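Sequence design from tokenized structure. All designs in this work follow the same two-part layout: the structure record, then the generated sequence. An example of the structure record is given first.
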């Protein structure tokens, strides 16, 4: 088995696009994925890990790319029945998805750690041999302080309140990182942040004890822009993500465009990122990226396989950035693709544009 050399730090949807494609390009056993747990919630007594599950389902070819979460073809009988019982659930757990949360909760109750439970779920779902590690074993919820003064959990704001109430501040949960996180980073040749929300997907991982210093010691440190400004207008589902990202970036003193996100990383974790991948449609932002001390690299962020090839080339060219701060366009055709038959379910660019909200009961007011 190849030693793990690349670590991807990610949230849900961004990871669902990049991770399966990157695994296909760099090799399934050469990749460890560290997944945000700041979005986790307790749902009718069950532990739900939306970002971890999104990555597992994407790797297993089960991910619902149309909806943007959960399992393709899932039904929502139980959640509807809960509504009939007067429970008014606002988080749309599908019936098969629910089995994952039941099994996770049972295994956690038996004394296993979230890392061990995730390994077990990855094996039975068929997500391996990519190693998927939750960022923390203990609950580390991201909390949002709203302008109105209340503090709420991430999913309460993002789903129940549709990301509408203005956000004053984002507070990451913090605490110890899962042991596998620091071990994977210590062995890594390269680490890739994103393409995910830098505040609510990457930030909560960076806030865990020891993670920043472990990343700083990795030879190649890449961040991928989660936003493409130069393309078509996004669909309603993607716009939901974008609106939320704009809100939490604004609350954190950042801007939701590639230069703004590079500047956000440069300000909040100086020197941590040495290379910033942005979409070729946003090439005009490359100078601004270079101005905050990162090597800008152009890629196609709406095509997961092309993006994976760009990232893989950077991982393979560990000698350092090109001289002169000039944007680099990596020739994707030069990258070998391994196991091209073994991947399914990675969100396509079309899907990322079209991911839509489910047909759920109306959000309940508390
Ligand atoms: N997002 C929604 O906007 N509405 C939902 O009802 C919803 C349910 C859900 C269930 C399981 C799961 O794994 C994810 C789910 N998501 C839902 C997505 C999730 O809220 C966010 O996309 C991520 O937490 C952000 O990374």
């Amino acid at each position: 088995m190849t030693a793990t050399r690349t670590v991807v730090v990610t949230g849900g949807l961004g990871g669902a696009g990049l991770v399966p494609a990157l695994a296909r390009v760099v090799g399934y056993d050469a990749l460890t994925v560290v997944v945000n747990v700041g979005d986790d919630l307790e749902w009718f007594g069950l532990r739900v890990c939306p970002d971890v599950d999104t990555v597992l389902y994407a790797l297993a070819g089960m991910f619902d790319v149309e909806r943007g979460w959960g399992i393709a073809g899932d039904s929502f009988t139980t959640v509807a029945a809960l509504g009939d019982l007067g429970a008014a659930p606002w988080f749309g757990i599908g019936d098969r998805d629910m089995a994952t949360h039941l099994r996770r909760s049972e295994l956690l109750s038996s004394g296993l750690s979230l890392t061990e439970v995730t390994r077990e779920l990855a094996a039975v779902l068929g997500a391996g041999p990519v190693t998927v590690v939750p960022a923390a074993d203990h609950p580390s919820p991201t909390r949002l302080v709203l302008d109105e003064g209340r503090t709420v959990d991430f999913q309460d704001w993002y789903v129940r309140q549709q990301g509408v109430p203005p956000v004053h501040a984002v507070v990451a949960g913090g605490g110890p990182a899962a042991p596998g996180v620091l071990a994977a980073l210590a062995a890594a040749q390269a680490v890739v942040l994103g393409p995910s929300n830098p505040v609510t997907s990457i930030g909560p991982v960076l806030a865990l004890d020891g993670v920043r210093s472990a990343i700083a010691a990795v030879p190649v440190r890449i961040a991928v822009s989660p936003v493409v400004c130069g393309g078509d207008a996004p669909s309603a589902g993607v716009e939901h993500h974008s609106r939320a990202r704009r809100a939490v970036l604004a609350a954190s003193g950042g801007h939701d465009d590639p230069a703004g996100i590079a500047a956000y990383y440069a300000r909040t974790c100086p020197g941590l990122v040495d290379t910033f991948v942005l979409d070729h449609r946003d090439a005009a932002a490359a100078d601004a990226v270079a101005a905050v001390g990162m090597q800008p690299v152009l890629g196609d962020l709406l095509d997961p396989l092309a993006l994976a090839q760009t990232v893989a080339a950077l991982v393979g060219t560990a000698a350092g950035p090109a001289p002169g701060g000039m944007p680099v366009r990596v020739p994707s055709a030069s990258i070998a693709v391994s196991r091209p038959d073994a991947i399914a379910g990675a969100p396509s660019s079309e899907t990322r544009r079209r991911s839509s909200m489910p047909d759920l009961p109306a959000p309940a007011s508390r």
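Confidence is low (pLDDT under 50) at residues 318-326, 328-366. We note this feature because it recurs in several other targets discussed in the main text.
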